[in-house]
Every structure is written in structure tokens, then in C-alpha cells.
Amino acid sequence: MSTLSERLTPLRVAVIGAGYWGPNLARNFAASPEWELVAICDRDRARAELLARKTGGPAVAESVSELLDSCELDAVAIATPARTHHEIAMAAIAAGKHVLVEKPLAHSTGAGQDMVEAARAAGRILMADHTYCYTPAVLKIRDLIAAGKLGDILYVDSVRINLGLVQPDVDVFWDLAPHDLSILDFILPGGINPPSVLAEGADPLGSGKSCLGYLTIPLPGGALAHIHVNWLSPTKIRRMVIGGSRMTLVWDDLNPQQRLSLFDRGVDLERQEMMLDDAVERKGAAISYRLGDTWSPALSEVEPLGLMVGQYASSIRSGVPSPTDGEAALRVLSVLEATSRSLTVGGPVAPLVVVDAQGVS
Amino acid sequence: MSTLSERLTPLRVAVIGAGYWGPNLARNFAASPEWELVAICDRDRARAELLARKTGGPAVAESVSELLDSCELDAVAIATPARTHHEIAMAAIAAGKHVLVEKPLAHSTGAGQDMVEAARAAGRILMADHTYCYTPAVLKIRDLIAAGKLGDILYVDSVRINLGLVQPDVDVFWDLAPHDLSILDFILPGGINPPSVLAEGADPLGSGKSCLGYLTIPLPGGALAHIHVNWLSPTKIRRMVIGGSRMTLVWDDLNPQQRLSLFDRGVDLERQEMMLDDAVERKGAAISYRLGDTWSPALSEVEPLGLMVGQYASSIRSGVPSPTDGEAALRVLSVLEATSRSLTVGGPVAPLVVVDAQGVS
Amino acid sequence: MSTLSERLTPLRVAVIGAGYWGPNLARNFAASPEWELVAICDRDRARAELLARKTGGPAVAESVSELLDSCELDAVAIATPARTHHEIAMAAIAAGKHVLVEKPLAHSTGAGQDMVEAARAAGRILMADHTYCYTPAVLKIRDLIAAGKLGDILYVDSVRINLGLVQPDVDVFWDLAPHDLSILDFILPGGINPPSVLAEGADPLGSGKSCLGYLTIPLPGGALAHIHVNWLSPTKIRRMVIGGSRMTLVWDDLNPQQRLSLFDRGVDLERQEMMLDDAVERKGAAISYRLGDTWSPALSEVEPLGLMVGQYASSIRSGVPSPTDGEAALRVLSVLEATSRSLTVGGPVAPLVVVDAQGVS
Amino acid sequence: MSTLSERLTPLRVAVIGAGYWGPNLARNFAASPEWELVAICDRDRARAELLARKTGGPAVAESVSELLDSCELDAVAIATPARTHHEIAMAAIAAGKHVLVEKPLAHSTGAGQDMVEAARAAGRILMADHTYCYTPAVLKIRDLIAAGKLGDILYVDSVRINLGLVQPDVDVFWDLAPHDLSILDFILPGGINPPSVLAEGADPLGSGKSCLGYLTIPLPGGALAHIHVNWLSPTKIRRMVIGGSRMTLVWDDLNPQQRLSLFDRGVDLERQEMMLDDAVERKGAAISYRLGDTWSPALSEVEPLGLMVGQYASSIRSGVPSPTDGEAALRVLSVLEATSRSLTVGGPVAPLVVVDAQGVS
Known about the structure:
Four copies of one chain form a homotetramer. By secondary structure, chain A is α/β, with parallel strands linked by helices. In chain A, 33% of the residues lie in helices and 31% in strands. In chain A, the strands form three sheets. In chain A, strands 8-9-10-7-11-12-13-14 form an eight-stranded mixed beta sheet. In chain A, strands 3-2-1-4-5-6 form a six-stranded parallel beta sheet, with helices on both faces. Chains in contact: A-B, A-C, A-D, B-C, B-D, C-D. The A-C interface holds A 258, 264-265, 291-298 and C 258, 264-265, 291-298. Strand 14 (281-296) of chain B pairs antiparallel with strand 14 of chain D.
């Protein structure tokens, strides 16, 4: 049977880039029954060989062209610096390979759009490694929202702060906000697609880039998403609050004993006639509280990267894009780029690319 | 000696407004050796009489004019709705009384400016009841900053959120942010005096006003203050982080066991030559961490309102304005008003009045 | 109708003792529609008069005999030092009054037993003011256990520690453990009735009495209750864990945002054949985890003392003893007395009195 | 120079036991410049070979006799089940090797004593792998106590609870309490050497052994150490409080942001004449609080096992026993054994062996 034989034949993949993140990808491809890790590619041959030794001895290549020429591959996984993503991905797509790419998708929205269109034209899967989206907490949040447990989304407030290394090449938004943006895109029905974004940053140390900042993104229905990123905080916080009309969810990623909490508490708004204290009768808004139970769902303990490489295989076999496909990554990239422009102009800025359910427009 | 006799003669005060906050003021005036509470004034005579019975039996008046005509007073304390502050305060100043007024100072910056100028012209004390500024935590923060313990201020991030009543007459900024603004004005050397403010609000329930919002205020030297206020949060947070170049302070007002924490942790920035991973030598920014001890100072346990009425007496006797004088309250009011305009225009807005050390300009 | 007229006629009560706790009782009797507070009794007439003025002006008496002679009463509430409880209660019962008494019931188990028997013989209600039992958290815990939500009780671990005043007349067990014991008696089906108790105390400051200690009480079915009391702890903890075969409950009384948590987590024990690592086949115990959701029920916000005086009235009218009746108080007292003897003998000690569902035996 | 040449010649070690803990030891020996890992020994040859491959390819042996015959060794590290420790250690000592052994030292105090005496007679180092003692937190606690920062130790309260696997061969005391006991022995001047211990356990699931329990150990000067171990707790707690006459230390091992807190708070006891409320003048104890600052020292980030193998090497080279030498391990073992007897007799029990600064007596 074809299904069975497909099961029996693992997909052949190469990992390109053996630096910081590549080893994690290689380890997970090597451990997956869906995949056969056939090569590691890195300009630094010694680094590639070291990684190959730890992951069952795949082949080693020093360049992408050498890799594509010498190995029979179904797919590649790109874990190189962002500015090289476009060139490598385009070459791989041209060679008929499926492509998984580290965040951010590319160094510019234009380049990302190029990759999305090339993959679509070639009928290849283009997927982003938005790892957070494959954590048990985020998967549960997505399910809860999709099932209507939260009701309408009223606001999202995310805080991602700690004492961080000031990166040489990116500011705090490009370093940390991709996590929040990819999560938002994953959990919100329809993804993120804001008419404008507004960012404010500060560089009080004079490092030449924002070391802390705030990013605001309007959501449908008058809701607001707000992201606080900060490299200068002595305390580490990873906390996202999603206020809903029915329940409010708090995700505290640093509290392993109660990562998710759902509060059946809120404000109920009812229009009614009321007397104000100046004795003038008029229409007012009366609000009452709802103080219900709190509930913390149990979460499974799975390896997010293992789930992610499984999703990559499954998308390739089925042709169905993953929720973190190239278009999702392009939405994230587009907002990031708008963030930088907002910092420059000092006000709200519209993302360059609008990607909706029908694709890039 | 005059000092002794002044000590022996308490100042005579009336509390105007016997609603929500007036009773707290009356109780503290009645308990203070510096003060003699001689009258309660309220349109609702029964309410005034009830309060008078609980505070040692001062006289009762139904209107400000009745009060000023019938009682020999040194000072008044105004705890009526904000829109009545200007009229009452102007009458009291015209009658030669010192004036303490609830926050906000007035319903508009213009009215507040009027009051400040009238008090100055009449040589009377005008002071705002910014109660938070008289709490042990805030007093300690002010001392620590003044003593240079934090170094340069790099950022301030304040979160003041809870499940709150949607107020009939004010939005969440006017309800909650005066606390943060008055605290900032109190602890920062020179007070708050920003060239512009930027506010974003959301009204996802359709209540007709912002129920949650964010307010950003540039501080001198590239620093940024950010305030998050929210009526729709199921969890209550009262947390202010003040990042400094030497130490960072975290004030968690809901943790009575460790309200203030000072972190001797931070980021040290040093310019140096460094090699980036693409092997191109260039100037970069190298950052190293500093991971020192954490210290939580013990706080005294004093009643803030008791301290505040003592400060009012002391300012009257000495002629030296308190740190929460009319000009401080005007700076807070001016930023609040700019907040509302920023919400309307959707971008940064400059406060109408600039009050610096030399006064209103 | 008698029910209606009873409703319309409040019960007449006097509070005996106007020191630390009496004012709280008097205030709640005065505020209750079920009660008419007719007198305050205290050896210190000025203290009694002061309290009377604050509670609507009841009569004042200087001695219990004066009180019982001069006032028409249905009931008394005794808030005097423990060593005087027996004499006052016996006089009140002899005069046909119902009796509410502060914890501990009496200065000795024998005296307490005397009071229980006298009240029973006279057909009067004898009730203890175990205030904690009327808090929303404890009422909810009792309901949850009674409904079988926790399953069988496996253990109870209670920690009640803080920086406390070393009391002149009692040790840390008599000061703090009555709270834990009365709560345990209230929530456990059948109350506490242990065959023996074991206490260990320490007096490292040389104060002449235990300043910290541990008390262990066997529960039915091999379960164990353990109580940690400590006056020397710099951090304050009020935390009771009730491990059950179905769910485990954690009550953290100092966390107002999540006072009760129910964990659907535990250990499932199943007998099975298993291979141990020394390759000898034998019967072993295999345990597997159950990792389910956590749930935090919303709690009402009622005044415990208001509920308690309501229960007192209701017991008097119906003749049905309250769950904190004289026998409950006697069980607590009996365990406390055994605690002291255990400290003396350095080992387990059986309580002197066993009070079960059929009464004292 | 001999020092230099010693530095240049790593000590030769074999790890015996390749199961749960052996790999950690092997990895740390392999990584240390002080050591050369020359062999892995395990009855299961495949397991030994797997571990050897991961640690640089040392030799493999299937039995201790084969190991001692075939390899030139300075030292061994034993990570086999406790009941085999004695036989292996005695063989190694007889062969002139230094011995590191996993906790507990042996299956019985007698066997442990045998090992201590054999090592002393042979002039070999016998050391226990009490890993916790080499963590930055415990090292800092030891230093603080030694420097007198805490003053006299008044009490120690340790809680080590979580949802744990019910072990097939040991109860909760033997599983968890060795950690607390080895830490206490390490940080308390003179180690632990109690005249008696008192343990209480419960087996409410009917597993055949204690699944939760409490252990009390008198300390010099009227102080008390108390240890709570529990396999059935849905929440995980690792918390030790050390109350001192000058400062109190709280070690919360699950709070990486503030693992250690030192509270300059306490109770000051002063004898004085005082009037009690019954108007009888007598000697009483007056206590006042001291409410000072809290301080949380920064901790280094070192690998405890790396430090431990370094200490092993240093002890061998210098001949100076480590603080976790055989005698320390014997004190821990002796208390553990007394714990089991206390459970059986239902009361306090004296440890069989007393090991003081002069050695075993």
C-alpha cells in the first residue's frame, strides 16, 4: 500500500548551517522515523564534521551547490544567518527541494515574498521553524481559542524581558518579537494582518539600537495586541495574557507548575439607565464583575522540535501547508519590518505586504 | 518662642466633600496633633453630619460659601468631584485659605494653571493629595534615586492592572494613570516634563471609553517611561520597574514580604573591536553582564495619609512647597490631558503646559 | 406563625469581655438582624462603656452575676481569658442561657467536659467561636471533602509560621495550633479523634516555652496529619495541603488570587509482576502518575464572624448543634492537652477524652 | 617541580556502574583536566560500551576483578546499587585504589564503618558523592554559617516534596532524606551527630513502605532540624529554612531568580519585669521584633559534579579528606538507619554509630 510504503521510506533531508541552531534540527531529524538525515552543510567543514559525528554520520558538504549536486534530497533545513536565507532557499527550490527555514524568513519582506512565490510556483513546501508554535502550551492556547473558550479576543499583552546579550546585528525587536508575532499569528484565527503597527524603542545605553521597546498591533474588533521586549530587565518574564469576552488566559512560561491559567473572571457590560452622582439622568454604562473559577489545564510533555519536524514531513507528504508555512512567516516578517519603519518615523506604519487567507496581495 | 507656640496651636481645617475619600482625610486631620478639624462641608447635610459624628463633632456646612462665612479656617481640603475643584479652590484662595485638593488637580490644564497662579499670587499653599507619594515604598525609591544608587535612569515600566469598575465619567487613563504619573513626578529628579506623550487605548467592550491602554513618556537621556493600565485583567498587578545604569529597582506593591528589590544586575556596554561570524572585522558593541546581589530594604510602617496631612501643615508653617504641590499636580494633569489628545489624534502629542523648576511657562 | 414571629424577635445576647476579641463579637451581634445586643460585661467598666458606645448603646455590667441578674438574656458570648471560661459558662448555663465561648473551650479537658455535660443536661447550646471554620475557603474545603471530590484522605500537612510575639502565658502550640485543629475537626468527616498525638518543640531562645514545634496526628486509614507552628520564621506561611486519593487540595491563605487549588494529580498504585534490576522476578509495586488539570474554585466574600453569629442563632432556634459545638471544641482541647503531655514525656500520648459521634466517652 | 608534574599527570579512574548515575560521573571525569577516564565497568557489557563510546573511548570491563586486574588505576568511582557498595569498595581498597561512592555509603552502618576503617588503614581516600554539597547555593550557605552571619542556629526546616515514583526497594526516607542529611552534615559546624532521631511515616496507599514522612533531629543548643519528605505532593517544593539568632536563611531551590534569601529579621528576647493582664506582677519574657533588610547573594554558575570530581582529585593528591568523606557519609547512613528503626519502634532512637571530629567511636 502506498501509505505504508511512504511510512516505510523516510524523507531525505540535509541541514544547512551547523552553528547555534542547526545541531538542534539535526538531532531531531536524526531521531525521527519520518526522516533520514543525509547531510550536514557548513562553510566550516570541521564544524559540519563534528555535528555529523554526533548525529549518526551523515555526509558533509561545504557549500549549498556541492550539497545539491552530491546528495539525493527531498528537503533541506536552513539554519544560517537571515541575510543568506533567500539565496539558499531559492537555490533549493530551484533544485526541487522542500524548504524549512529558521526565523526570520528572510532579511526583507521583498525577499520573503519572492521565496513564497517561488515555492508556490514550484509546488514545494516552504515552512518556517516557529518552534514556540509546537510547544504544548501554545498548541493548547490555539485549541482553546479555536473552540471559542475565550470568546472574542479583547486584548493580548505579552512581556518577554530578561537580561539579554545586546546583539551585534539586530535590535531587541528583531531578536525577541519574532517569538511573540509567530505565536500570535499561530493562535489568532486568520493570523496577524494589521492595518498598521506602532513601535517605540529606547537605547539608553547608546548601543546604537533599541535595547527595549514596545510594539502595538491593532486586532480585529477594536482589540489591541501589545508586546514588551527588553534586554535590560534584571528579572526574566515570559508572560502572555489573552483577554477574552468569556475567559481570560494567562500563559506564564516560567512557571512549570502552572503554565496556563484560564480565568472565568471578567467584566460584563450592560447598557442601562442609571443615575449619576450629579443627579442628571442619562445613559451610562453599567459594568458588573463575573468572578468564577480558575482552571489550569494539564499539558503534555513533548519535544517541540520533534513535533515540528514531524509536521514538516506531514506537509510534504500531504501537500497541506503547515500553520507555520511561508505565508505565516511572511506575515511575521512584514510586521517586523513595519516595526523598524515605525521606529524611524515615530508613528504608526502600515506593513508592506498583506497576506490573508487567499495569499499574498 | 514662636516655633513652640505654633506647635501648640493646631491649624484649623475643613474637609469639603464627605463622599468616598473625604472621610479618610477627615479621620487623619482629626488624629493629627498639627490640625484641628473644625468643619465638614457637603451638599448632602446628612452625609456631612454622619462624618462629623465619627470625627469628634466638627461643625457642618452645606455649601462652600456657608463654610467660608461661618468658620474661622486656616485651610481647606477638597475631596469633591474633579469638575468642581476649580470653583471651590478659587473661592477658598480668595478667602485667604490654604488648599489641599484631591487628584486630579482640576478638570483641565487651564483651570489647574489658574489655581496655581491664584495660590502663588495670594501667597497660599496649594497642594495635591498624591497619597502614593507618602507611602514608605515610594519615599524609599525617591531617596534611593536621589542618592544615586540606581545611577542614570534607563527606563521605567509600570503595570497597574486589575478587574476594575468601568467608570461612568472617566477612562482607564484618568482613573489609574494619575497614580503612576504622580509617582514618577515625585521620584524623578526634576519631575515629569516630557516634550510629548503617546497613548494607545482600546475599548473592546464598546463601553465608549478606553478600558485598557498604554502610555509612553520620553525621559531625559533617551530613557523611556511606559505605563500599562487595564480594567479588564483577571489578575491584579501593581509593579513598577526602574532600570538604572547601576542598579535596577522592582517595586511589587502586592508582595508585602518583599515590596522593593534592588538588583545589582545589568548590562555593561563596552565598545571594542570584535570579529563577527561572517569574518568581517568591524566595530561592534560588546556587552557583558553584571550579576550581583539582590537587596530588599526594610520599610517602615507609617500611614501615608497621616504623613501627607503632616506635610500639608509643615508647608503652611514654613512656606516651603511640598513635593506634591500645585505645580507637581499641574504637570500630572498636563500629561493626562495630552494622553487624551494623543488617543484622539493617534500619535504623539505635546503637553500644553510645561512646568519646570522655574514654574509654569 | 411561630417561625415568622421568631424571625421578627431577635435573640438577646450579652458579650462578656471587652478586651481583644470581644469588640469583634459585639460588632457582629449588633449588625445581625438575628440578634439584639443588650449588654457588654467587663470588670473594667470604662472599657465596657467605650465598647457599648461603639455598638449602639447596650447596657453595661461589671460582673457576670450583675449581668445575669439585671438583664433579660437568651444567650451570652464569652471572650475572656481561657482560665475564666469554665466558671462563667457554668454560671450562664445554670441561669438558662446559651453559651458561645472563645477558643480554647477551657483551661483543661476536665473543665471543658464539665461544660459540655452541663449544657447538655440543661438543654442549652454550647458553641465555640472557631472563626476559621466560617471562612469561605474552609467551608468550601469541607464541602469538597464531603462530596468525595478528594477521595480518601491520605495526608494533611499544615504550616502556620511567621514572626510572632512570644506569648507570656502559652507556648506556640496553644497559640497557633487551635486554628489547625479546629479546621481539621471541621473538615474531616467524624472530626479529629486520634488514638495518640506526638509533639516536638524547641525553645532555642530560652524563653521557657516552645517557640516552634511539630505536631503529628494519625488519621483513620493510615493517613497522617502534621502541623508545623513557628514564631521564629521571617516569612509568613499559611498553607494546608490535603492529599486525597482522587485529588489533592492546596489552601494558600496568603494568596488572595488563588487561595484554593485542586490538583487532579497523584500517584496510582497498581500491583503487578515486575522485573527488578537484579533480574529476580518478584512482586513489586508499580506506580504511575496521573497528571490532570488544576482547578481553583471561586470563593464568596462573606464576613466569617457574621456567618458564625448567624449559625449561633440558628442552632439556638433549631436545637441542632453547630459543627463547632462544645464537643468539637472539646476534641480540639483534648488534643492540645495531649500535645503538652507529649512534649513532656518525649513520645506519643493518647488524648484523655474521646468524643465521637455518640458524644463524650 | 613535583607540583607541576602532578598537574601534568592526570589521575587514572574507572567508573563502575553504567546505569542511571554512572554516565554523569563518567562525563565529568572525561571533561576534567585532573582525570583520565580509563575504564567503564558494568555487568551489562553493551551498556558499558555505549557509555565508553560517549566518553572518549575508555576500556570496558564486565566485573570488578577484571577491571582491577586489567587496568592501571589510581581510583574508582562506584555508581552501582547500594547493597553492592561494600563488596566493591573493599576489593578496590584492598587493591590500593581510592574510592568514590554514590550515596548511600552502604546498605548498613556496619558495612559503612568497615569501609571507613579499611580506607583509613590502607591510607586511601574514601569519599561520597554528596552532589548537593557542591552546588553554589550549599557552598554559599556553608560559608555564611562558618562566617557567623546567621549567628547561633535555632532551627532547620527542610521540605523536599513532589510527585515521586514509589521506589521498589526503598522508602521515601532512603530516597530523599539523604540529600537533606548530607547537606546538614556539610553546612553545620561539626556535622550531624544527634543523640537520637524521631521519624514518622505514612503509607496511605498501602505500598508496603512510607510514601511520606517527617524526621526530627535535635541539634546542639536546643535547636531542632526537621525534614519533610513526600512522594505524594502535587506541588514540588525544595525549601530549607535555617533560622539563626542573627539572620535567617531561606533556600528555595526552585526559584532560580532568588535561590537564597537572608532575612535580617527575627525575635529579640529580653528578660524584664512585666505586668500581666491578671494584675499579678511576675517575671515574664518580653519579645521584640527586628525587621531589617533582606539580601539575596549572587551565586556562581558551576557544574556541581565538575567541582566534586575536582575535590576528589585534590583530596587524593593532598591526603586531606574532603568535607564529604567516608565519615560524613557514615554519619548520614547512621541517621538513615536510625530513621528506619524509629519508624519501627514508634519513638525516638539513637543512631548506632557516633562519628565525631575524632572519628568513629
